[in-house]
């Protein structure tokens, strides 16, 4: 039974949204692509997979498909394990840390990344990330095994990545319990008012229109979406339940910080993410998804 009060759950969700957005920055800027291009990794999806999967080692496509969950298996297989013939996981890890550092310095400014606020945020995020249990959290555990970067702004990004993967690992477990495949979960999310646009998500994750239509039909047969592709009451309830359960499994790191620590980390990271968004770090259709203003926080 979840005894965490609603206000604490809401604060933790806002903090999780903030650190996820910070983690995402190197994948939307050109910094990581620029560092992987000399190795021959130029396709944007390959750049993403090399960066995010590198802590796992030179794994094959089925492992990445299983852990990433939302990507089409064939789309992954076109890129993995071929990327490891171009760049080693060790070089990809170094590239993504350098990319994160460069992106944050450029977007936020030298004064911010060298500030006491940045050092404190890195410490708070590090405490939260280090307190996450490892069992059942493979992507989180792979990142937890890496050395903590010395520079505070890169250490903050590293901790944000650990927290993002911890939540993501739990989310995948909940989706499995709900018997939702990767494409089905995307269809439900895109049909909700909180999801990203289908026009961006579907090709980004490698699903075809045929894949998407087949998933919609399966969900319609379960009574989760209508013939028009909108969520039914049952579909909306299932999505809400998946989000609640994901948050429940994600509560541990934020409980370690306490209300004050969670609030401080969320406020600072949200502020930095909004600064990055103002410099066009995210595509326009995704800006409010990654950088909501404070009036939207109560909806997260």
Number of strands: 0
Given as residue ranges, the uncertain stretches (5+ residues, pLDDT < 50) are: none
Strand content: under 5%
What is the straight-line distance between the termini?
A: 22 Å
Give the biggest sheet: none
**How does the helix and strand content classify structurally?**
mainly alpha
Shape: globular
Taken in chain order, the helices and strands follow as: HHHHHHHHHHHHHHHHH
Number of domains: 1
Radius of gyration: 19 Å
Helix content: 55-70%
Summed up, the helix count is 17
Mean pLDDT: 94
Protein name: SalK
Pfam family, one: HTH_67
InterPro entries: HTH_67
Descriptors:
single chain; 300 residues; mainly alpha; globular
Detail the topology: elements first, then pairings.
Blueprint: H1 6-28, H2 31-36, H3 44-53, H4 61-68, H5 73-77, H6 83-86, H7 89-108, H8 110-113, H9 116-130, H10 138-144, H11 152-177, H12 182-191, H13 198-204, H14 209-221, H15 233-249, H16 251-278, H17 287-290
Helix pairs in contact: 1-11, 1-16, 7-11, 9-11, 9-16, 10-11, 11-15, 12-14
Written overview of the protein:
The chain is an all-alpha fold and 300 residues long. The protein has one domain. Helices cover 69% and strands 0% of the residues. It is built from 17 helices and no strands. Helix 12 packs across helix 14. The longest helix is centred in the C-terminal third of the chain and has 28 residues. The protein is globular, with a radius of gyration of 19 Å.
């Amino acid at each position: 039974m979840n005894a965490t009060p609603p206000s604490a759950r809401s604060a933790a969700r806002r903090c999780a949204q903030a650190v996820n957005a910070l983690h995402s920055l190197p994948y939307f800027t050109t910094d990581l692509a620029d560092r992987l291009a000399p190795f021959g990794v130029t396709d944007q999806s390959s750049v993403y997979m090399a960066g995010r999967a590198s802590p796992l080692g030179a794994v094959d496509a089925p492992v990445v498909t299983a852990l990433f969950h939302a990507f089409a298996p064939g789309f992954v297989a076109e890129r993995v394990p071929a990327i490891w013939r171009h760049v080693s996981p060790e070089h990809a890890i170094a590239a993504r840390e350098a990319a994160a550092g460069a992106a944050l310095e450029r977007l936020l400014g030298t004064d911010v990344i060298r500030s006491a606020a940045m050092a404190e945020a890195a410490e708070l995020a590090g405490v939260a990330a280090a307190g996450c249990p490892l069992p059942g959290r493979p992507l989180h555990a792979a990142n937890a095994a890496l050395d903590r970067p010395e520079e505070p702004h890169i250490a903050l990004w590293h901790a944000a990545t650990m927290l993002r993967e911890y939540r993501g690992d739990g989310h995948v477990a909940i989706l499995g319990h709900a018997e939702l495949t990767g494409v089905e979960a995307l269809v439900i999310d895109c049909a909700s008012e909180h999801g990203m646009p289908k026009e961006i998500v579907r090709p980004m994750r490698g699903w075809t229109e045929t894949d998407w239509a087949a998933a919609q039909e399966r969900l319609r047969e379960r009574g989760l979406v209508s013939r028009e592709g909108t969520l039914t009451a049952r579909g909306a309830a299932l999505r809400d339940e998946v989000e609640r359960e994901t948050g429940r499994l994600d509560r541990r790191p934020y409980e370690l910080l306490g209300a004050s620590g969670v609030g401080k980390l969320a406020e600072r990271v949200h502020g930095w993410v909004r600064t990055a968004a103002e410099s066009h770090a995210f595509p326009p259709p995704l800006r409010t998804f990654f950088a909501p203003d404070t009036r939207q926080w109560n909806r997260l």
